[in-house]
Write a structure and sequence with these properties.
There is one protein chain. By secondary structure, the chain is mostly helical. It contains eleven helices and no strands. The protein folds into two domains: 69 residues, Death Domain, Fas, CATH 1.10.533.10; 96 residues, Death Domain, Fas, CATH 1.10.533.
């Protein structure tokens, strides 16, 4: 279950109806009048803001502003705690992913295109990588992984990379990545 959605559910449950009315008023410039009239809970408001990409786990400024506007310091503390935990979690995931990238760059050779296709990179992107780094195989592999990470964002995980490696029959590299991720997790 997504921890950010759990946070939003918790915040919604703690909002009084008067506070919801105030939040709806503050969001008049973002949300249409009909939608605002139909909102019965904080979850309704948060759902619309999520749909509009005005709110997500990486961008909580609007949520922070709304909660401070209705003077809910207790809810701001919940948001602070979530952000502190998310930052630690993200840093650990990035360490694991970078360790995995180093291993893949070292051990995946000319078959990197097969891995790129398994990671759902288009042939046009693969060709662009080859043109950008001619005759530099490790740089081609690293760029492929960087493009994949940027395209998939949170979905680009060590587990996804390992699954793709195994699907390409690169089991030894997958084993190295899993072992390296465990080591990175320990640091």
């Amino acid at each position: 279950m997504d921890s950010f959605l759990v946070l939003l559910h918790s915040l919604s449950a703690k909002l009084a109806s008067e506070e919801l009315t105030q939040l709806k008023f503050l969001c008049q410039d973002r949300v249409g009048k009909r939608k605002l009239e139909r909102m019965q809970s904080g979850l309704d408001l948060f759902s619309v803001l999520l749909e509009q990409n005005a709110l997500d786990r990486e961008h909580t400024e609007l949520l922070r502003h709304l909660l401070s506007s209705v003077r809910r310091e207790d809810l701001l503390q919940l948001l602070d705690a979530f952000e502190a935990g998310a930052a630690e979690e993200t840093a650990a995931e990035l360490r694991e992913l970078h360790a995995a990238f180093d291993i893949v760059c070292t051990h995946v050779g000319r078959d990197w295109r097969q891995l790129a296709r398994r990671l759902q990179l288009s042939d046009a992107r693969i060709d662009a990588i080859e043109e950008r780094f001619p005759r530099k195989l490790p740089e081609q592999v690293r760029e492929m992984l960087r493009v994949w990470k940027n395209a998939r964002r949170e979905a680009a995980t060590v587990a996804q990379l390992v699954a793709a490696l195994r699907a390409c029959q690169m089991n030894l590299v997958a084993d190295f990545v899993e072992a390296g991720a465990k080591q990175a997790e320990g640091t």
